[in-house]
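Researcher: Here's a chain I'd like modeled. Treat it as a single chain, no partners, no ligands.
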Amino acid sequence: MKKVFRILLWTIVGLLFVSTFVYLYLNSQDKKDSYQTVKPSTATIERSTVLTGKIEPRDEIDIKPQISGIITEIEVEAGDRVNAGDVIARIKVIPEASQLSSAQSRVNLAEIELRDAKVKYDRDADLYAKKVISREEYETSEKTYNRAKEELESAEDAFRIVREGVSRYNAKESNTLVRATITGLVLDVPVKVGSSVIQANTFNDGTTIATIADMNSLIFKGKVDETEVGLLHVGMPMEITIGALPESKPTAIIEYIAPKGTDTSGANTFEIKAALTLDNVDAVRAGYSANASVTLAKAENVLTVPEGVVEFSGDSTYVYVMTDSLPEPKFERRAFTGGMSDGIRLEVKSGIDSTVVLRGDKIQ
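Model: Modeled as a single isolated chain. Structure tokens:
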């Protein structure tokens, strides 16, 4: 048994020795390099960039009340189409105590003035009939009386406006009726019946009753990095990809490039707006996320090489040109002038012709 074990042990030792010898021998041999070769080819190179942004209506209007109060009725909801002038909400006025008191006081004073004017008018009318006073005095008294009546009507109407928000003379155009100012689609109604609303003034923007937009005129709004904004110009075409509508590929034309950049997460970006052309406007909703592809530069039918075979050194570019294939491949490092790149292929402007075979990545 011990003899068998001893034989097995020496056999294992011998195999380890032979394996080590073979491994060292193989590593000491010169390895043959293999090479991947490619030829320059004619192609079209495009340099493009992708902008992220959203689809937005060109005209989006916040409808605000012209008077403060409480909403008693809402005539529309999000998704409804309205025309300019349509009533979208009704407001009940809650008058301020000071304004109401002042208006009431004006009515009281107008009533007093009217009573005094009527007494004088009646007296002068009687005296004029008896030819005691002149016609001029009578007409002056009549004018004073008529003016007092007009003042009372005006004071009562002002009191009604303060108390109810409605004038007797233009009830149809009452401030209590909130109307659409444009024709379009109701995007949002952020208030409910019973909500208190405030009219816009110098101290606040007022309460938004509804947001309306013209969905027939849409734009793409996005941002571009400062390194590429100089390559864009107004009138440049864009291809839009909408995440929610992958089959739709609308086009757009740049119509605005912000003259001033904004700091976005440490990067200086510029706002871009482009007019959108859509076949089916009804399928698009405001706020859809979208990407815009813009071709910044294009070189058609130029000689190109894959960037993988190019060696970059500062502002210079080099390739290895095969000078001999037998008995072993020989290469020469050669400088050439490169042009536009799309990240995959590089334009060759000079230094290489179409018959040269280039050395690719060395495969060990």
